[in-house]
Amino acid sequence: MNNDLYHDQIIKWSKKTDNNKRLENPDCSATVSNPLCGDRVTIEVEIEGDVIKDMSCQIKGCMLCRASGSILAKLAGGMKYSELKNMALDLEQALKSQTDNPESFPETYRMFYPVKKHRSRHSCVLLPFEGVIKSVSGLHGIGDK
């Protein structure tokens, strides 16, 4: 595991633009910001029932936020909203935990283990999740789950 904050995997994911698009007919959207570092994330979601069909993630921000958003947008299609919320909680707990073990992170987000030591950067990784949760929370009967 590379312990550099901005290692190759983070750089690679931050450069992906596959989901940095506008959805034609989103069911919901939200914009969230981190005033401490200036990250700004706009999320659009197409959802059917409680299953996310597609998601776009437009980010103006740091490499950590862009990498996290790229991974989330790639994973979200076909995922239940409750699964996404649980993933967000697992990642947040891993970032805050006292455990000094990369295995404590959700596998897909293990590359963010070095961020654990930089509390001020936790919100950079979590902001895309916050955007999806804020977006979907406005939909009747879904956001409460």
What features would you highlight for this structure?
single chain, 145 residues, Sufe protein. Chain: A, three-stranded antiparallel β-sheet, 3 strands, 37% helix
Proportion of β residues? 15-25%
Which structural class do the helices and strands define?
Answer: alpha+beta
Domain count: 1
| Amount of helix | 25-40%
Number of strands: 3
Commentary on this structure:
The protein is an alpha+beta fold. It has a single domain (18-137), classed as Sufe protein. Chain: A, CATH 3.90.1010.10. 37% of the residues lie in helices and 17% in strands. A three-stranded antiparallel sheet has the order 1-2-3. α1 (8-14) crosses α2 (63-76). It starts with 7 loop residues before the first helix and ends in an 8-residue tail after the last helix. The model has no long low-confidence stretch (mean pLDDT 90).
